[in-house]
């Protein structure tokens, strides 16, 4: 059993209302560390056994067509542990 | 008799909640999220909406508003407090009620006329209803699925703290069809559907939601 | 990238500029030089190019739209007419109502959720700008075939976007349209309508007057949204490494807009603005030039004061940015402190960016350097005007000459099948899958919404004064005959208002067409405008505003001409409206209006892939008499229910009526198939108490409307002659289509 | 400038309708790799300079009180690159 993680984030030039809301809330709660906050999605995909090169290519493909919208988002695919 | 209605940035149903309070015969007092003064109210309603845009988790940011700190204290002393929809979410985030409200199982916003049954008519907000009474009021939210761990669920069921349940098909995946719950004392109630939109059948599916607002008047008189 | 200033422009007259890349024609560029007496700076070029675009300048449509003013009836109800952000009508009791439709078609194809969401956001700001509290929205939509793969991508996203934005603003959705046709496959239509209400003395206009008054920008910070074209300018002219990649789509933040609405209404209530303009298409270029042009003097703006989300933006880009959720107000200096205080209360970013001058120029500086110095009218209101060639397309006579050969059901089994098929066909099926994603209850004033003929909201809780709004387009008829199609859509929208007993008062429109450079499309457009102008004149209804969307096509295939017509009506007491259906047995059902063999452009023809024939001819005199009758019947408490006939004819109307409150009906008609399936315009089914028969007959006679008794209410089935359809079966057919197509 | 990443996932026992929907959509699009999918949130927080121990403790605190709801969610905090 392996875990593939796909992280999807809005492109830097795209407005991120969610991240903005968090960034605004943090100082109100007394947290001053953040210069900026962006919020995205994280998908944890479990696959049987070790991922093959072919499978990873499939995940890339799925990320591009389903998990992320390339018009406004970027994504990264990686195998965890 | 004064009932406070809180407005957070992004609150939507505050005017409706105030109207419902007036229909029930009480005075509605507008409370502002940044003002910790409750202006002498006897009870408080946290109305529906998308406070702070609900971007992080519904109710997650509102919970920290100055007005909430006073409300939490007063509710701890027994003041009646009703959270409707987003207000329910705020109550869970503030840990005044257990569990959490998560994304609807069908993943989209759902607005429909919903039949619910009143499962506990001993709370400050439900005494106008008879036990087991079925009413139809609007349900409208994107994150209305009540979730908690098994132990909490057993406790809620065992102590009779389920205030209302959906009747018929589960609209959003809530555990045990939960539409609303209360705290042990029965003064704090969180409810996912919207009784304030059902106080007059001209503008709502029924007038059967008014009971929540008349109940609290009785509770305050008998205090 | 170096800064192009007015001084530089004067000193480098031969500098090559990328006007063509920005969409300007050679003669347009020449005209800009003539206006300025020099070459434009890059910032000026950017401003002219967006403001003179089709979208902002209406350069292809202006010559036709003029008819709306020229032919207009004088209406006492019209408080603000065409030319402002939205028209305003008097609805009595000191209330004024404003409403308008706008399109957001192309962005919604690229990114359905955000495209639709920002479409709603934009029209709501237009309404807010008039000084009104937005009170309801509607969303007329068009998609490719329901079972097409791309429709499965586009439709759920658009619905979620309309809901996601509108729900978060706390605006009830009170109606709209969902229509499928293959011509929309690569070009869905997202039109959004907003209604707002205010007191007469609260009306605001886009005017910057009073030298020394401040220009205030408030709302979201400015980012690089929607400025693809200007990046061309930045890179090509100034030979740098090229601009940062700018987003192709705008992302909306409905929370910021909700706060902006409440903040603005508080500012309006204290009368703190002299003029106001929302930032929509063409952003600051549009807002500053329109405000200055609408006012008495000039304006000075310090562009470097604009708060930025992306600090790398160039001045050209800031001028063009279409970042959402921004407003520009003109404020007297004595009121600015209070203005800032209210913004602080709502946590809204606000900046004074300039002031009104007593000159005649719009001057914009960047860190002290003059980068724009133009006569504002030439940017905002004196753009190019084209009288584009138009020619009746070849297809029109050909399809008009076609004789339809439709299978007409003749057996009981066939009739039953036809009724069930119509009930379930995507264009007529129950739209709850869509509207269940929209909040219809918020604000507590919704009287009617989907599936009623019109949306209706109460605007005064004490007097129960209300307004009703309906939108309609029948693109199939417009395809066959755009002149009649426009009139028919107008008549239908007005009838949808009158059916509930409201009095039609004013008209808005959104004209969705293919490319204006195609003479055939231009002919469709011209005929549509002529039809709408003539129709409004005949019906005595003023056009208060609207929107034109061109270039709706996939490759060379244009969409069907789709003029979406919105009609607003007023009802003095919403409690007395006529509901669309009956809740009890024992009532008599009458069909008002005559039925002919009108199958061209009908749903029955569409289902059988037939597009030919001649569209019906609009009889607006009859339409008005029918409307008067419907309003009179409501006032006299004659009607228990009334429901309009449109797509799907009597069959669809009966289906909707019996399912609404789950009370059946027994119908006895002659010429069954034609009576059920024909779409002759100008018909309504009403339910009355049998004892009121003579009253109805007298009323119909008085207004010269043909009536026929068609049946009675009751039972748990729809019975048509010998055909029996249990309500449960009918309901299943009607409601399962959308969940089956798009999931639960 | 450093980037702190906070990943927030629903606890395994909590229903994840979004993850379930993705898992159901993948095979419909011809992707067969996934045994299961869970969907969570990813926050990218930019801070000035290298994060101090104190700052990281603050981020933990913020994650616990604001970014995640411990009733239904778990979170991890890490510095990226
Ligand atoms: N089809 C139309 N019918 C009537 N008026 C129209 C039409 N199209 C545009 N207008 C009017 O032209 C003016 C400019 O339109 P537009 O640029 O869309 O306004 P805004 O920038 O406020 O959205 C508005 O007053 C609008 O109502
Ligand atoms: Mg405008």
Task: Summarize this structure briefly.
The complex is a heterotetramer, with 2 copies of chain A (81 residues), 1 copy of chain B (223 residues) and 1 copy of chain C (744 residues). Chain B has 5 helices and 11 strands; from the N terminus they run E-H-E-E-H-E-H-E-E-E-E-H-E-E-E-H. With 223 residues, chain B is α/β, with parallel strands linked by helices.
Strand percentage of chain B lies at: 25-35%
Strand order of the largest sheet of chain C: 8-10-7-11-9-12-13
The number of domains of chain B is 1
Given this structure, which CATH class of the largest domain in chain C is correct?
Answer: Alpha Beta
The chain pair forming the largest interface, with residue counts per chain, is: A-D, 36 and 37 residues
Pfam family, one (chains A, D): PurS
Keywords (chains A, D): ATP-binding, Cytoplasm, Ligase, Nucleotide-binding, Purine biosynthesis
GO molecular function (chains A, D): ATP binding; ligase activity
InterPro entries (chains A, D): PurS (IPR003850), PurS-like_sf (IPR036604)
Report on the structure:
- The complex is a heterotetramer, with two copies of chain A (81 residues), one copy of chain B (223 residues) and one copy of chain C (744 residues).
- The longest helix of chain A is centred in the C-terminal third of the chain and has 15 residues, at 53-67.
- The mean pLDDT of chain A is 93.
- Chain A is elongated, with a radius of gyration of 16 Å.
- Chain A has one domain: Mth169, Chain: A (2-Layer Sandwich).
- A three-stranded antiparallel β-sheet of chain A has the order 2-1-3.
- Chain A has helices at 17-28, 53-67, and strands spanning 2-10, 36-47, 73-80.
- Chain A is α+β, with helices and mostly antiparallel strands.
- Chain A starts with a strand and ends with a strand.
- The radius of gyration of chain B is 15 Å and the shape is globular.
- Chain B is of the alpha/beta class and 223 residues long.
- Chain B has helices at residues 14-24, 66-76, 86-93, 150-158, 210-221, and strands spanning 2-7, 27-32, 43-46, 81-84, 100-102, 110-118, 134-141, 145-147, 162-166, 178-182, 188-191.
- Chain B is built from five helices and eleven strands.
- In chain B, α1 crosses α5 (210-221).
- Chain B has one domain (2-221): Rossmann fold (3-Layer(aba) Sandwich), CATH 3.40.50.880.
- The relative contact order of chain B is 0.18.
- Chain C folds into two domains: 57-73 and 83-380, PurM-like C-terminal domain (Phosphoribosyl-aminoimidazole Synthetase, Chain A, domain 2); 395-742, 60s Ribosomal Protein L30, Chain: A (2-Layer Sandwich), CATH 3.30.1330.10.
- The two termini of chain C are 53 Å apart.
- Chains in contact: A-B, A-C, A-D, B-C, B-D.
- Bound molecules: adenosine-5'-diphosphate (ADP) and magnesium ion (MG).
- Magnesium ion is lined by residues 85, 126, 129, 278, 280 of chain C.
- Residues 85, 126, 129, 278, 280 of chain C line the site of magnesium ion.
């Amino acid at each position: 059993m392996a875990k593939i993680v796909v992280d999807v984030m809005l492109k830097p030039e795209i407005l991120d209302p969610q991240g903005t809301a968090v960034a605004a809330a943090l100082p109100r709660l007394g947290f001053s560390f953040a210069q900026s906050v962006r919020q995205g999605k994280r998908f944890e995909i479990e696959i049987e056994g070790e991922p093959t090169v072919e499978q990873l290519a499939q995940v890339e493909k799925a990320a591009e067509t389903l998990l992320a919208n390339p018009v406004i988002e970027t994504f990264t695919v990686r195998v965890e542990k | 008799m004064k009932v406070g209605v809180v407005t957070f940035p992004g609150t939507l149903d505050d005017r409706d909640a105030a109207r419902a309070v007036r229909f029930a015969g009480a005075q509605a007092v507008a409370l502002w999220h940044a003002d910790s003064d409750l202006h002498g109210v006897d009870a408080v309603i946290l109305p529906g909406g998308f406070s702070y845009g609900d971007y992080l988790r519904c109710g997650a940011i509102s919970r920290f508003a100055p007005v909430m700190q006073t409300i939490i204290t007063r509710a701890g002393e027994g003041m009646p407090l009703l959270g409707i929809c987003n207000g329910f979410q705020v109550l869970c985030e503030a840990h005044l009620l257990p569990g959490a409200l998560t994304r609807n199982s069908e993943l989209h916003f759902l607005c429909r006329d919903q039949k619910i049954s009143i499962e506990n008519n001993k709370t400050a907000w439900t005494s106008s209803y008879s036990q087991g009474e079925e009413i139809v009021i609007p349900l409208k939210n994107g994150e209305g699925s009540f979730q908690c761990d098994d132990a909490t669920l057993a406790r809620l069921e065992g102590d009779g703290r389920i205030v209302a349940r959906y009747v018929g098909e589960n609209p959003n995946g809530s555990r045990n069809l939960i539409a609303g719950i209360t705290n042990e004392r029965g003064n704090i109630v969180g409810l996912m559907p919207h009784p304030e939109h059902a106080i007059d059948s001209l503008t709502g599916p029924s007038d059967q939601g008014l009971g929540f607002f008349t109940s609290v008047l009785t509770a305050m008189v008998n205090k | 990238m170096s800064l192009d200033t007015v001084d530089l422009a004067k000193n480098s007259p031969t500098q090559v500029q990328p006007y063509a890349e920005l969409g300007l024609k050679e003669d347009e560029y020449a005209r800009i030089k003539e206006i300025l007496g020099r070459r434009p700076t890059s910032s000026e070029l950017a401003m002219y190019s967006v403001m003179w675009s089709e979208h902002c300048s209406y350069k292809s449509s202006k010559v036709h739209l003029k008819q709306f003013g020229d032919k207009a009836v004088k209406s006492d109800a019209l408080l603000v007419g065409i030319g402002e952000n939205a028209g305003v009508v008097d609805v009595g009791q000191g209330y004024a109502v404003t409403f308008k439709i706008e399109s957001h078609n192309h962005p919604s194809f690229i990114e359905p959720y955000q495209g639709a969401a920002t479409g709603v956001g934009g029209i709501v700001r237009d309404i807010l700008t008039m000084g009104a509290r937005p009170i309801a929205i509607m969303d007329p939509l068009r998609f490719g075939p329901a079972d097409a793969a791309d429709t499965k991508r586009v439709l759920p996203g658009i619905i979620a976007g309309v809901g996601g934005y509108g729900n978060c603003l706390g605006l009830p959705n009170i109606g709209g349209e969902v229509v499928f046709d293959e011509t929309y496959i690569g070009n869905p239509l997202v039109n959004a309508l907003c209604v707002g209400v205010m007191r007469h003395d609260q009306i605001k206009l886009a005017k910057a007057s009073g030298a020394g008054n401040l220009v205030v920008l408030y709302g979201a910070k400015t980012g690089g949204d929607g400025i693809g074209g200007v990046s061309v300018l930045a890179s090509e002219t100034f030979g740098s490494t090229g601009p940062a990649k700018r987003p192709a789509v705008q992302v909306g933040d409905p929370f910021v807009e909700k706060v902006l609405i409440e903040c603005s209404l508080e500012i309006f209530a204290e009368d703190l603005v002299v003029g106001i303009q929302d930032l929509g298409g063409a952003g600051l270029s549009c807002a500053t030039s329109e405000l200055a042009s609408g006012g008495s003097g000039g304006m000075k703006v310090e562009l470097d004061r604009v708060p930025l989300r992306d600090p790398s933006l160039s001045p050209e880009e800031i001028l063009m940015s279409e970042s959402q959720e921004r407003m520009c107000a003109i404020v007297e200096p004595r009121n600015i402190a209070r203005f800032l205080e209210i913004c602080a209360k709502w946590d809204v970013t606000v900046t004074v960016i300039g002031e009104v001058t007593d000159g005649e120029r719009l001057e914009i500086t960047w860190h002290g350097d003059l980068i724009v110095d133009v006569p504002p009218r030439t940017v905002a209101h004196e753009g190019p005007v084209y009288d584009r060639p138009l020619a009746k397309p070849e297809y029109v006579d050909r399809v008009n000459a076609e004789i339809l050969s439709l299978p007409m059901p003749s057996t009981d089994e066939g009739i039953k099948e036809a009724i069930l098929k119509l009930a379930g066909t995507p264009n007529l099926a129950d739209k709850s899958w869509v509207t269940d994603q929209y909040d219809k209850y918020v604000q507590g004033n919704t009287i009617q919404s989907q599936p009623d003929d019109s949306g209706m909201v109460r605007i005064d809780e004490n007097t129960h004064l209300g307004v009703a709004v309906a939108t309609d387009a029948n693109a199939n008829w417009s395809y066959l005959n755009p002149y009649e199609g426009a009139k028919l859509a107008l008549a239908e929208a007005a009838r949808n208002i009158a059916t509930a007993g409201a009095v039609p008062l004013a008209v808005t429109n959104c004209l969705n067409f293919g490319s204006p450079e195609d003479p055939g499309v231009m002919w469709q457009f011209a005929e549509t405008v002529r039809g709408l102008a003539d129709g409004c004149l005949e019906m005595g209804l003023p056009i208060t505003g609207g929107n034109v969307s061109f270039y709706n096509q996939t490759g060379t295939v244009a969409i069907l001409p789709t003029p979406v017509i919105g009609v607003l009506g007023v009802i003095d007491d919403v409690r007395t409206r006529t509901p669309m259906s009956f809740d009890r047995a024992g009532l008599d059902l009458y069909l008002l209006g005559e039925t002919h063999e009108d199958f061209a452009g009908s749903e029955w023809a569409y289902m059988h892939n037939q597009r030919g024939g001649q569209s019906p001819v609009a009889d607006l005199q009859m339409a008005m008499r029918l409307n008067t009758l419907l309003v009179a019947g409501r006032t006299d408490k004659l009607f228990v229910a009334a429901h309009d006939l449109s797509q799907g004819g009597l069959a669809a109307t009966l289906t909707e009526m019996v399912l609404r409150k789950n009370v059946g009906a027994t119908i006895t008609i002659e010429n069954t198939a034609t009576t059920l399936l024909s779409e002759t315009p100008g018909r309504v089914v009403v339910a009355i108490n049998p004892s009121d028969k003579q009253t109805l007959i007298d009323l119909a006679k008085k207004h010269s409307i043909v009536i026929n008794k068609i049946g009675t209410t009751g039972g748990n089935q729809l019975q048509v002659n010998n055909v029996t359809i249990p309500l449960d079966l009918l309901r299943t057919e009607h409601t399962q289509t959308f969940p089956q197509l798009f999931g639960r």
